[in-house]
Structure formats: C-alpha cells, structure tokens
Design brief:
The protein is of the alpha/beta class. It has seven helices and nine strands. It has one domain: Rossmann fold (3-Layer(aba) Sandwich).
Amino acid sequence: MAQASLDLALHGRRFGAVAIGASAGGVNALIDILPGLPRSYPLPIVVVLHVMRGRQNQLVDVFRQRVELRVEEAADKDALAPGTLYFAPADYHLSIEEGGVFSLSLEPPVHFARPAIDMTMESAADVYGRGLCGVLLTGANHDGAAGLAAIGKAGGLTVVQEPAEAQVAVMPNEAIRRRAPDLVLPLRDIRKLLAMLTGEVG
C-alpha cells in the first residue's frame, strides 16, 4: 500500500492503544511486525494469542529478545503503560476496564479459546473507542471477528492481515466477511502502520 493511503487512513486520528489478535501462525507474524518499534513508542500494545496452557511466559521471553519495547504478561489490575507490549496470560480471559486497567477472568472459553480475542477487543473498544487500533492476524477459527467489528462500530481503526499472505486464512476471512475492515494489509504494511501510530496525525 502506498504511503499516501496509510496517511489518509490515519488522518486526524489520535490513538490510545493497539489491540492485536492472532492464532495459528501468529508468533511468526508478530515477529515480522513488532521489531523496530522504539522503546519510546507512545502506545501500549495488547496481544491475545491462542496458546497452550503454560506457554505464555515463553512468549514474553521470546519477544524480550526481539523487540525494544518493554514486554510483560498482563496482570490483573495493572494499568496499561505506553511503550509496553502485553501478552494475555494463558487460560485467562483478558479485559480492559475503564481507565485503562486490565481485568482477568475465568469465564467459559469463547470459540474454544481462553484467552479470547473477542473479549479483549470488545472491552478495549468500550474504553478507547475511536482511539483504538485493532489488528487481526492469521488464525484458524472465528475468534476476533466480532471483536474487530466492535472496534469498527466504536469508531476505531480496524486492520486485517491480507488473507492470501496469512499462514491460516480462516480468521482474517471471517473478520472481512463480518464487517469490512478499514484496511487489509500484508505484514510489511502493518509494520509500517504501527510505526506511524505516534499520536495525532494530520
């Protein structure tokens, strides 16, 4: 996508947070888009990945070696901080409450997943509204489609990985089918877009 098109998508927006969801193939996709963001990045990035129980701390360790951002596992009642990459803990749903504070719960799985992307994105949309950027990457089920739609309805920016590029295209395709996203991009352009979310644009 041309730089001018990315500029147009961001024009006049001010962002407070980024929410990213992924499943099968998501680790490799994240490794493509997150390195290069500076430690001074002005936004928190919250990632929900479908992982096996007990694997979440490994993700934190893996990404601490690859990104400049501070990397943490999201903890109950912690406030979101700029320049920090948060991973939802395994086997807990992760929500964001008013004031930008994490909340963990043990409600039943959604789309067979806990954490569920939908729960995180829907709660983040309620808190950040137009100031949220939601990104849905590769994955093998429908989790995240409703969450990304909620971000769009709240006025946030919605981005889906180009299905033809995704390791598993089910999740991106379902998101596109459910509600047309603002942008459908390959990973190289998602990486460029994230780097541009540095406050007010235009």
